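Morning - 2-acetamido-2-deoxy-beta-D-glucopyranose inputs below, output right after.
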Amino acid sequence: MSCFSLTLVAVLMLLLFAGGIDAAGLYPTSQEFNNGTSFLSLAGSLQGLADTMSGSLIPYWATHQISAGDTAGYYGFSVTMDVYDFLLTSEQSSLALVNIFTAGDASLASVNTIQIGWEVSPQSYGDSHAHLYAYWSPTGFRTSECLDTNCPGLQPEAGASMVLGDIIEPVSQPNGIKQNITVKVLKDGILGDWLVHCGFNQHEPALIGHYPRSLFPGGLADRATDIHIGGIVVTRSTDLASMGSGYLPSTATAASFNNFQIIDQNGQASLVNHNLPGHISQPDTYSVSPIINGQFFHGGPFQSTP
Ligand SMILES: *[C@@H]1O[C@H](CO)[C@@H](O)[C@H](O)[C@H]1NC(C)=O
Ligand SMILES: *[C@@H]1O[C@H](CO)[C@@H](O)[C@H](O)[C@H]1NC(C)=O
């Protein structure tokens, strides 16, 4: 299992959300947007690919998602998320993230994606710390490693206070002080680049770099059609890993996402103050709470040792 595979599996799973089951029908689903069956069969073949690559490693996800449909689009988002870390084995990986992407024409190769958040992955980083995580791809996934700064992509901002891959510490205590990162990704109105802002325990995140528009010949050159937000774990079913703080959203110690905002074509940010459809692969294990005033909780099940 290379670190590439773990990242790839996570990416594939994000794409699979679009073939999943929606909890509520408030918005057009990715299925409707992608015209159903073709995307579902794509999801099926992706699952097969993921299974082949990951052996008995299983991805779990608990997210909210929003899809813009054919005519509208998203031009960015902003959110603050609690950060945790925990001991994981080299076969486990846990992420809290936002995936902003363009679903394209339902073929994997047309998916443009930028993902950002935090990840604990001993396989990728050689430790059990939380790291500032980002991944991009113009083709759903790539044959090269585009985690953090491992392949050209993000043009870093000179003097940026945070760099992709950085260890985030201190981290939150489920019963104590919370530490958070705020990530904001938005499309530059003139050049069309995707500007990435990040901050640790601060309200206004600072620019840390940009993904040039030219990286995304397909959809993200113009706009995003979908946003997924929540947690992903890759692990063995017999050895569950923590997502979020490790606690289910029904508990007071669950990890939160706060102040989730979506940015429109004019650069105007609006708080997501209504619930969105949830995509939850195994609700009794990992889950998300409904979104209320831009806030929701996510995660599951606590394991004290690897
Ligand atoms: C969706 O698929 C159906 C059946 O293949 C087709 O009739 C319809 O035109 C498609 N809709 C769009 C928006 O592509
Ligand atoms: C993020 O952390 C800072 C510093 O602890 C705190 O002031 C702020 O309220 C936190 N933000 C959220 C949304 O939890």
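Note: Residues 37-54 form the longest helix (18 residues).

O.
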